[in-house]
Design brief:
170 residues; single chain; mainly alpha; GMP Synthetase, Chain A, domain 3; 8 helices
């Protein structure tokens, strides 16, 4: 008779596992095989699955994509990077106020009528630059607002029918 070689290491572990599975079958217990574990989603090991941690930026990008928030998130980024996009001169006198996604309108308020007029003249170039940053068609129109003026009540020195303070923005 041939003598069986003595088992050690991995071979010994395989034999022990096989024996344990066989005993479990004899007792009537169900033994999970590798393909059953894949089917039910239970697994362990070095491969990635949905339970693994992901970087915060990747998780936020996935959430934004799943919810369809790409355009509002991009416009929100523009609100924060306004001075980088339009330049420090314009940013010092004009600031974005709101964005209407349905109409693709960005509302910008200026601190004087001169800057409002200047921004209206530059609107086409700004729309092109914003769409380059955000993606085509994100901003179609820039709505320019003049300065906020305090509302003056009628008084002794107020002419009836005059529209407002010394700044003549209509």
């Amino acid at each position: 008779m041939a003598q069986e070689p003595e088992l050690s290491g991995v071979d010994l572990a395989r034999v022990a596992l096989r024996a344990a599975k066989e005993q479990a079958r004899q007792r009537g217990e169900q033994v999970r095989e590798r393909r059953e574990a894949k089917r039910t989603g239970l697994r362990s090991g070095a491969r990635a699955d949905g339970r693994d941690p992901v970087p915060l930026g990747a998780a936020l990008n996935r959430l934004i994509t799943e919810r369809g928030w790409e355009a509002p998130a991009a416009v929100g980024g523009v609100m924060g990077r306004w001075s980088q996009i339009v330049g420090p001169d314009i940013a010092a006198h004009c600031e974005p106020k709101s964005y209407a996604e349905a109409e693709a309108v960005l509302t910008v308020q200026c601190d004087s009528t001169a800057w409002a007029t200047q921004l209206r003249l530059l609107a086409r170039q700004l729309v092109a630059r914003l769409n380059h940053e955000l993606g085509h068609g994100t901003v179609r129109v820039i709505k320019v607002l003049g300065p906020d003026a305090p509302v003056r009540g009628y008084g002794r020195l107020r002419a009836p029918g005059s529209k407002g303070p010394g700044d003549t923005w209509g």
